[in-house]
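pinned: reference chain
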Amino acid sequence: MAHTVLGIDLGSHAVKLAQLEVGFRSLRLVALHERELLPPRAPVDGTAEPLVERQVRTVRALCDDLALRPEMTSAALTEGVTLLVLTLPLSDRKKVEQVLPFEMEGEIIGEIDEQIVDHTVAEAKLQTGSEGPGQGCRLVAAAAPRTQVAAFIQELDRAGLEPRLVGASALACAALFGHGMPGPYPAAVIDLGHRWTHFCAIGRQEERGPAATFARSIARGGLQLTQALARALGVDETEAARLKHQADLGLPSSAAGPGRLAATLREALRPLLRDLRQTLASYAALYGRPPEQLWLVGGTARLAGLAAYLSAELDIPTAPLPPPAALLPPTPEAEAAVVSFAPALGLALALAGQTPQVNFRKGELSYRGDYSFLRERAPHLAVMAAAILLCAGLSALASLRVLQQESERLSAALRSETMQLFGEARTDGAAVSAEIQATIASARGGGKGIPTTSALDLLDEISRAAPPRGADKGSLDVTELHIRPQKTDIKGTASSAQYVDDLAVALSKIPCFKEVEKGKVVAVKTTGPDGKPVDVKQFSFSIKTTCP
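pinned: its structure tokens
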């Protein structure tokens, strides 16, 4: 049965949603949705509404308007995320997870225990030193403050959109490259947002396919371009934002008109270009060469002439990201949609399948619906279950050994007794018992064999069957009791005739008593416990006994 997966891109200017329908071996893009952030609420006690609350409020309003109720959602953090590329001399996943926090500890401000750490594998089976080939790996590791992740999840949960995956925005587009994206490799995606620019490099390995190999977040974006235009033209930011999207970076500079807009934007882009050059230099130092292709996504990527301008400045072919062939046709509308919705679509694809993305929902913050918290504890639970089964097995073996020893002792006694009785050792206890019973019955002239009920057993049954006694329940004093093979006689006194009747009824329910004949009940006087005379009822019972 197909279910709805929603990728949520929480931008600082607008929120974007990618809606997928995922079934058994099927994946279909249903729709893409976008809405600018709702106006902020009035400050409470002088405190402005946090950006994340405004973003989530906008998403909730958009979902309500669309009557959209997704079964699974994914979102990503932008601020507060630390990204590193690490090379380790081991490749076992469990060992990597154990040592990764210590490797990142020196790069994080604060205590590592206050961070949630996750990673994706950039290169597997890496040759590292004396370990030999195939023993190391290169990782893209990410860390985020635990309190920030918990607050982010709580905010989305209050809106009814609890995410199964909380990733890093810088890695959001990596999942697109597993769905029919063109080469060449290595490539890099530059996500030009409103406040942030994310750089994510993608490599391809024959065994694993495309995977993120490098990532960095730069605190610059379209907002700085809008502010530069507003200062240069003396207009407000709303008008500057409108003029920004009318400019063409490919036009020559001039004192007025579109040429002036282009010149102002090129000047405003210089700090971002400096950061991008540093990022490309870091990537080339790590991997030996720069990316062969740069792909542009994000709202700022829609500026006219931006791709050609960046290509000339960075000396790397640059173009808007084409749509993934497995999801969208190569039409102009699809190309424009992918440029705007690539991060949201990547987050949805990361949740729908096994594609590169970190997930900060770990440990106590794990999504409870997919039992990942149990999978993390599976080794401990397996050890405990094995220990319990081992103890139960040892206990059963010990009990079996005791029973075997008792059986051997009884068998030896049976052989010894039958040797003395019959002149030969026998091992069939049931047959020996039946033969003895038959011999006794024959000796008694066809009567019963060994009694199965003793006089002591009948005495216990009579005592149990007697009605309750006490100051308010009556009294009973048995003066004579004769238990014979087929008859039992009882004489005594009771406090009332009713008690005698109750006793007769109770005795008739004993399995060995067939008929209870009650004799004459006579009133007599006797001495009570206090020495005073009391009236009691004297009785007698004659009972037919059926037990041998």
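why pinned: The mean pLDDT is 85. The chain has 14 helices and 18 strands.
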